[in-house]
Design brief:
Elements lengths: L2 E5 L2 E4 L12 E6 L2 E6 L5 E4 L3 H13 L1 H12 L12
Antiparallel strand pairs: 1-2, 2-3, 3-4, 4-5
């Protein structure tokens, strides 16, 4: 699964052809042994467990980069290469 961004120890990934299980645009995040799936629509955790501070950072990052994430999602579900997105500064 390609890494699309990394910031403050958080790794953000997006799978190709990954629209079957969650049925909505999403990203996968990893942080210090925790894994969570975040919806791109509302930035909420739809699966997994994530520390609150890291959750808030991922949610802010999603809001800042929502257009880029949706563009990457469209590429990913078509099996095409996706682009890296700037980390949270």
């Amino acid at each position: 699964m390609p890494i699309i961004s990394m910031f403050y120890g958080i790794i953000i990934r997006m799978f190709n052809l990954d629209n079957q299980k969650h049925h909505k645009p999403h990203i996968h995040a990893e942080y210090q042994g925790h894994d969570a799936v975040f919806s791109l629509e509302d930035a909420e955790v739809i699966e997994g467990n994530f520390p609150i501070k890291a959750t808030r950072m991922v949610q802010a990052w999603i809001e800042i980069h929502k257009d880029e994430l949706i563009a990457d999602w469209k590429l990913a579900i078509s099996g095409e290469n996706i682009f890296k997105i700037r980390p949270l500064d």
